[in-house]
From TrEMBL:
It comes from the Eukaryota. Residues 1-253 form the Malic enzyme NAD-binding domain. It comes from Aplanochytrium stocchinoi. InterPro entries: Malic_NAD-bd, Malic_OxRdtase, NAD(P)-bd_dom_sf. This is Malic enzyme NAD-binding domain-containing protein. PANTHER family: MALIC ENZYME-RELATED. GO terms for molecular function: malate dehydrogenase (decarboxylating) (NADP+) activity; NAD binding. GO terms for biological process: malate metabolic process. (S)-malate binds at N140, N184.
Amino acid sequence: GGVLASLKVEGAPSKLRDHRIVFLGAGEAGIGIGSLIAYAIHEEDGISVEEARKNIWFMDSKGLITEKRNKSEKLPHHKQEFAHDASAYEGPFGTMEDVVRQLKPTMIVGVSAQPGKFTQAVCELMAENNEVPIIFALSNPTHKCECTAQQAYDWTNGTCVFASGSPFGIVESSGKTFEPGQGNNAYIFPGLALGVISAQAKKIPESLFYETAVALADQVTTEDYARGSVYPKLELIREVSLNIAEGVATSCFKLKIARAKKPKNLRKWLEKKITNFDY
């Protein structure tokens, strides 16, 4: 959701196809995020998922994942799909700074649980190469974050879009005030689950996760962007989840994977299924 919402930030590339994304951390969770982004590019531009993956690179503990490494090391299956031909670049590819200097990504995503890996040099390079560098430090808890919100804003002179896996408070930097968003799956799963369970979906295709991300991104307001966030306020989670559930359930009926009978008023039908703990 945050990745899609960042496309609407003025100065950033407005299409996923025009982004080059580098992930730091190539565990199954990170690969899962990368795969969903590739699917989103496929949906938006009509290119194959295989072609879309070429926009997305991964780094693990040994450096950049490449075709050359895959041939010599026999990488695990979940990494192989993102092992690209890097012969057009000079190298080296051992550190995050090396990779950012060579590949010039528009977006970096940290899922490594390695604190401090988005160094000052990395962030400064991102700012040098992009009008609006996008920096997502998603590892949590806070002490495992690749960089703090304060560091990201300070090192990019307040030009970056920043989101984190752990919550950060209000940040003052470069004469501006930021309230960065949190890339938390709490935005996704309540609404996704409500929509799927209510529709009694026979299966959960990848397209439903994409629909969920789109529904979340669509709820980021002008005010959210103004405070430096690409996520809605977390206190609006109930309304956000209901909107996501409505989109998911609608897709289930459209794809003919719902066992439930389609109600006349989908919104009210879903509202009745939510427990209210207010007395």
